UniProtKB/TrEMBL annotation:
Summary of the function given for this chain in its UniProt record: Binds and transfers iron-sulfur (Fe-S) clusters to target apoproteins. Can hydrolyze ATP.
Record keywords, A-Z: ATP-binding, Hydrolase, Iron, Iron-sulfur, Metal-binding, Nucleotide-binding
Taxonomic placement: Bacteria, Pseudomonadati, Pseudomonadota, Gammaproteobacteria, Alteromonadales
Similarity comment text for this entry: Belongs to the Mrp/NBP35 ATP-binding proteins family.
Pfam families registered for this protein in UniProt: ParA (PF10609)
RNA-binding among keywords: no
Descriptive protein name: Iron-sulfur cluster carrier protein
Gene Ontology biological process: iron-sulfur cluster assembly
InterPro entries per record: Mrp-like_CS, Mrp/NBP35_ATP-bd, NUBPL-like, P-loop_NTPase, YlxH/NBP35
PANTHER family associated with the record: IRON-SULFUR PROTEIN NUBPL
Subunit structure: Homodimer.
Amino acids binding ATP: 90-97
One Gene Ontology MF term: 4 iron, 4 sulfur cluster binding
Length: 339
């Protein structure tokens, strides 16, 4: 029965599991099935299993054991996590930090150990979005920073070290120095994914970061608006130039969705992010509407995907995050085992 069952699981396909649930991830002992996923997609796997009548008679134990991907680079920087992902935008204010926080929380819900490094040193917004602005970092005896724990994530931001207002007037070299220190001197604990909230833009500081950090991949956030799209394309070009694989584009603020009646209004134009994704052969990870509740949740420091997991918007975020993790695995493949 084991082989036919494994073959059946391989037919359970979705956008995230393009080859189904693979035989090597499954361990079947009588009515007990253990499924060990190599990327964060526990929620999607459970959904697939639940939707199949043939699999209901079994006891399922779904675990996530994220593997480090083969592609990992960076000029001499230590690698702080199994996978390091930049969340970037060519233009400011398109919602990059909000997307980064929600993606991180979604990956954590999908079974992974996740951290966020707020590298947006000119305007660190992580402390506000996570509702822990008064939190202060602690240090190890050898002066390493211990990341703060929040909503199941490990996080660090310049905002926990200095006042956000002070950081906004920093000049390039000071900001780059602070960033390198944040990256090198934070003692991250056993992370599957470290998401880096990059400073907006494609200038020197962003290029240096993209070159120096051992990035496994990058996600570009844009709105559908023409000016944002031009900058998003610069972002794509920047990552391609330094050989960082693009895991996808998130089109944020795709349309305004009225919280009362559900009416949709394409405030910033239509499909722009989707068109750029197609033009540059980068996957589109999602189209997230402009929603008052999302903005409110970020201002209140209780991000939607954590605070309201059953909200339809949270489903969108979960889909994008798991798709990103799946793309990372599919595009890059696990690191070969050490001899
Ligand atoms: N989909 C959305 N719906 C409603 N509000 C949103 C959405 N995405 C982001 N926002 C809001 O837009 C504002 C800007 O978002 P955010 O700070 O995430 O952008 P950013 O691109 O990181 O900005 P910066 O360039 O300053 O780093 C915030 O108030 C945020 O709550």
């Amino acid at each position: 029965m084991t082989e036919p069952l494994k073959n059946h699981c391989a037919t359970l396909r979705s956008d995230i599991f393009t080859q189904g649930l693979l035989a090597e991830w499954l361990d079947i002992k009588g009515p007990q099935i253990s499924l060990k996923l190599p990327f964060a997609a526990k929620t999607e796997a459970e959904r697939l299993i639940k939707s199949d009548p043939l699999l209901q008679g079994y006891r399922w134990d779904v675990q996530v054991a994220v593997e480090s991907m083969a592609h990992s680079k960076g000029a001499g920087q230590p690698i702080a996590a199994r996978n390091v992902i930049a969340v970037a935008s060519g233009k400011g204010g398109v919602g990059k930090s909000s997307v980064c926080v929600n993606l991180a929380l979604a990956l954590s819900r999908a079974g992974a150990k996740v951290g966020i490094l707020d590298a947006d040193v000119y305007g660190p917004s992580l402390p506000t979005m996570l509702g822990n602005r008064d939190a202060k970092l602690t240090f190890t005896p050898n002066r390493k920073m211990l990341p703060l724990q929040r909503y199941g994530l490990q996080v660090n931001s310049l905002g926990y070290l200095v006042d956000a207002e002070d950081a906004t007037v920093w000049r390039g070299p000071m900001a780059s120095g602070a960033l390198e220190q944040l990256y090198n001197d934070t003692q991250w604990q056993d992370l599957d994914y470290l998401l880096i909230d990059m400073p907006p833009g494609t200038g020197d500081i962003q290029l240096t970061l993209a070159q120096k950090l051992p990035l496994t991949g990058a996600v570009v956030v844009t709105t559908p608006q023409t000016v944002a799209l031009a900058d998003a394309q610069k972002g794509i070009a920047m990552f391609r130039k330094v050989d960082v694989p693009l895991l996808g584009i998130i089109e944020n603020m795709s349309y305004f969705q009225c919280g009362e009646c559900g009416h949709q209004d394409p405030v910033f134009g239509q499909q722009g992010g989707a068109d750029v994704a197609r033009k540059h052969s980068v996957p589109l990870l999602g189209q997230w509407p402009l929603l008052t509740e999302l903005r409110q949740s970020m201002d209140d420091g209780t991000p939607l995907v954590y605070d309201k997991p059953n909200h339809s918007y949270s489903d969108l975020i979960m889909q994008s995050a798991q798709q990103m993790a799946g793309n990372l695995y599919e595009f890059l493949g696990p690191e070969p085992a050490q001899e």
